[in-house]
Amino acid sequence: MATGKTQQDLDFDVLVVGGGPVGMLLAAELRISRVRAVVLERLPERTPHSKAFGLHARSLESLDRRGLVDRFRDGARSWNNGHFAGLDEWVDFSALDSAHAYALLSEQTRTERLLEERAAEVGTEIRRGHEVTAIRQDADGVEADVTGPDGAYTLRAGYVVGCDGGRSLVRREAGIVFPGTGGRVTARLGDVILADRENAPMGMERTERGLLFCVPLDDTYHRVSTFDFQAEREPGADLTLDELTASLREIWGSDLGARDPRWLSVFTDSACQAERYREGRILLAGDAAHTHFPVGGQGVNLGLQDAFNLGWKLAAAVHGWAPEGLLDSYDGERQAPARKVLANTRAQIALMNPDPYVTPLRELFTDLMRRDQVNRYLAEMLSGVTVRYGIDGPAHPMLGDFARDLELRTEDGVRTLPGYLKRGTGVLLDLTGRPEIAQVYEKWGAGVSWAGRVRHVRAACAAEPELSGLLVRPDGYVAWAADRELPEAELRESLGTALSTWFGTV
């Protein structure tokens, strides 16, 4: 259906469909880059229930680079250990090389609330109770049919991003295939009162009939989850308390007096990933792009990293300075991390299988986890700190990696690198005062200036005495790095190429 609107009189630049944590963060990232974004969320109110509970190191590092980490830490508990496949040996997050070497207890509903507050602070329009029912795109934009409290209407925007979950309408409307593996494990979850809480286990327990996960949520309620490896459950039907208690008796031998549920849910170990994250002007992020079994606390964190990666690139496309291939690099960079998460969650499910034949493998794996190198490998994998993007440029150990919290001495005093990324722009660190760095930044090639897209910072860094310069993308990843011995001509060429590759030539 044509609206007669041109690209100059769009209703919004970007429609974000889905108001969960990923959608709210993405909208906030777009707004700090002066993009007109609206969040369309079908639920009239934020759900009070949370499948996800934790934020890992890479998410906390990224939030720190927007000046947000303190509001997430305020009043929240953190812990240094986490489980892998419910094994007896725990993963030690304190071994991570990170300023946030821990996991933070932040229920999904709390994370969503804090990110919604952030989105509102920076001027995002949030429409709750507005459900997108159809999407069409053409060469100049996207139209969405929406049903709201006051009736149906149509919006036109330059782009739409589906953050609308595993059953994403946006993904279906875009015709993007969602291949994967079907569910063979049935998980039944209940937030319930346990009359027999004294005999309730703490954490995950494995029996020959399945697994039980049980933790207190507060002084009254427990989160109880049973994992049934024997019988597949027909999808679609709601979980009942009777079904949950029957599963408890089957797996644990007692229903622990479970009663008064405030939330019941059922899910499986199905794992799927979108064949691509972009179809023209339609993009996907979070669970709309990838779903997996919620073990290891990785799902929300994976989606938040999608938002950090996509936000500044989509803003560049909206403002017209995105170099060729920049928006496509979102798909190119975020597919691999999702594949790895799907693989490790499948591996954990295999280790959790109650079949006695799996027990020797669990014992072997537990023994391996007592070795520091193995334990650290798993900690890095679960927390996402090993994500590194394949970025072209002069060979350097920092290239493509997440920029560390470097302490910088400037004219204004001592500051850290995260403080320069709060506005969502890139940062060019000039650490030796080589004049060619400033010259390339100010004018290179056809005379393009990157002011406003990249902040040029002159500083000294005692921790990296050999480092001459560093170009950090808005999402915190290193796009260019050079040591002192890099010849002038090579520095000029490589820095100019990096700036134009990531920050445009117009």
From TrEMBL:
GO molecular function list: monooxygenase activity
Keyword terms, alphabetized: FAD, Flavoprotein, Monooxygenase, Oxidoreductase
InterPro entries referenced in this protein's UniProt entry, alphabetically: FAD-bd (IPR002938), FAD/NAD-bd_sf (IPR036188), RIFMO-like (IPR050641)
Protein name: FAD-dependent monooxygenase
Residue span(s) of domain FAD-binding: 12-344
Cofactor(s) needed: FAD
Keyword Flavoprotein in annotation: yes
SUPFAM superfamilies registered for this protein in UniProt: FAD/NAD(P)-binding domain
Organism: Streptomyces tropicalis
UniProt key word Cytoplasm: no
Domain of life: Bacteria
